[in-house]
Amino acid sequence: MSFDNWNVAEEEGEEELQDTSFFEGRRDVILFCVDCSQSMQELRDDVVYEDVKTSHLLTALDAAMQVQKKKTVSGPNDWVGILLYNTSRPNDSNNRTSEIKKGTSLYQPLAPIGVDSIQELIRLIEDARDDPEHLKKTFPPLPGTKMPMGDVFTSCNWVLRDSAPKTASKRIFLITDDDNPSPSSTKMLTSARTTLIDLMQSGCQIEPFFISSTEKPFDVTKFYSSVLPSNVLGEEDSEASGVLPDSISITRIDDLLEQMRFHEQPKRAVFNVPFELGKGFTIGVKGYGLVTEQKRGRDRMEVARSRTVYVDEEKEAEVSRNKALFGMKLGADEDGGGGDDMGLGPSRVVKHGQRPFYTADEVQSFRTLGLDPGIKLLGFKDKKELAFEDNVKHSIFIYPDELKYSGSKRTFSALLQKMLEKRKIGLVRALVRRNSSPVFCALLPQAEKVEEGGWCEPGGFHLIVLPFADDIRAAPIEEQLRASEKVKDAAKNWIDKLCLKNGTYPPDSYPNPSLAYHNAQLQAVAFREEFDDQSFEDLTRSKYDMIHKRAGALLEDWKKTLVKDENFNNVLATSGVKRKADISVDEAELRSKYESGELSKLRMDQLKDFLRNKGQSVSGKKVELIKRVEEYLDNRS
């Protein structure tokens, strides 16, 4: 049994750095843990609805509803639940909530996304908007006392333990405006920290949404910085160790839904490998993909999938790939000659007319060069030596992992800070999957950055795959005419007015319009609502009114300056190539000829070019073309 095309024995594993097929089958579990204290239910004016009172609790429930509605399409297999605390509302004795602590109420049991439960939540929100006191009646806050956070985390642990699927990714969205739930109580602080550690060791992540306002600013240092784990890189040795970043505080309650949408999809690692800094010196890192294809939800029906099958041609039966031998047409010359004369050590002699065969393990070793998955540091270079054109693939963001190698975060942080300080990049050899080939990469450090709107860029390294020599092609450089400095300055004026906020493009704020339109239709069908296509907003469409308001006058100045430029209508002739005549005529020139009755002086190709650019027909004689141009200009005079 043999295979001619032995090079593609594992073509299904060719994609090297990112494989998301494993994540598609995993379910995401989100438990909303919402504070129902007196401050959360304090009424204030609604900024969206006129003459309507709202509260932080109502906004939190509305955000939870919006996330669930979105998941009916994007993640129909995911699980969601809502646990309320600091409320005297009793639990339903029929469900398994007898073990959760007093003061907590499981309003929405942890279950797969369902239309009925979402519609029940919608009715609750609508009743609360009609009657401002409805939430206080339904979820009365605890009188005078507050529930210990240790009991809150214990209740969350029991809910997830009893209901969540074992293989799912579990997360808790903690929403509160109380920055000090246990004032002057070291015992309660220690209890909260201990129970949270137990919760996280069971595979659950906690993502806080702290609500801050000008009347009541949220100070994380009072309680939560000593309880929640810090995600600040490079500050373990400082006195501020363990202090949470300000970015997790929401200064505007309207930002709550935007923050939840940002955190809605779990951040799943693409790979988890050792990072060798030197001989016997290894830390653990995880890699996260920065660019992921957005897909619609998985269908309920069974989908046909293709797979590779290995067949014994003689027995006409399927065989295991591990028993297959892979070969190619190669043997000794007719004059003889063996494989022992090359000085490469032990080898197998292949007779003339026969093929060398390799086992699956040998083919695998050819691909991986016998290396195990991991990243190895080779050296350092100045940051300026990393050229823009070296970035030929999407980079992978790597972050320390303490699970297998203790002290990884501290070592990772020290390396990051030194490389940022010295403006260096690292050169590494990376093999992140067993069936991939090793590649050389640049390790580009990124400092942590907290932006004004509350978004945070974490500190870490970008793993940039470097091209091999065969991947580099010399791009032809053609000499072109350059704009004058006057034209450049005029263009800079309107460009500065239209720059993106903070100079970066946030892809999460601009969803695929076709996919969003499709999902909006599916949501309307699922909730038996009438879909209004006029209400759909395409966020990728340019805001022309805003553009004209900000830079309209500057754009007009730039156009006038551009027309006066000496190179405006010139075309640089290329040697050896006949220059194509410039037949274009701008509308201003054509209108002046029309007003002076000189349209007949224009050539046929000029008239056709103008009509073609305006979407008009170009058929007919010259008289017909002139008449068509005149009609166009008359309609726009």
Give an account of the 3D structure.
30% of the residues lie in helices and 18% in strands. The protein has 15 helices and 21 strands. Residues 1-25, 231-253, 330-334 and 336-345 have low confidence and may be disordered.
Summary tags:
637 residues, seven-stranded mixed beta barrel, 30% helix, six-stranded mixed beta sheet, extended, alpha+beta
Spatial strand sequence of the major β-sheet: 9-10-16-21-18-17-15
Rg result = 33 Å
Strand fraction: 15-25%
Helix count from the secondary structure assignment: 15
Mean of residue pLDDT? Answer: 77
- What characteristic shape results from the CA principal axes? extended
Find the count of extended strands (DSSP E, 2+ residues).
Answer: 21
Secondary-structure-derived class: alpha+beta
Distance between the termini: 80 Å
- Give the % helix: 25-40%
The major pleated sheet works out as: 7 strands, mixed, barrel
Summarize the structure.
The chain is 30% helix and 18% strand. It has helices spanning 21-24, 56-74, 115-130, 134-138, 149-163, 186-201, 255-264, 360-368, 408-422, 485-497, 513-526, 544-563, 587-595, 604-613, 622-635, and strands at 28-35, 44-45, 53-54, 79-85, 104-112, 169-176, 204-211, 249-250, 271-278, 281-289, 310-312, 317-319, 325-327, 357-359, 374-382, 396-400, 424-431, 439-446, 449-450, 456-457, 460-465. A 7-stranded mixed beta barrel has the order 9-10-16-21-18-17-15.
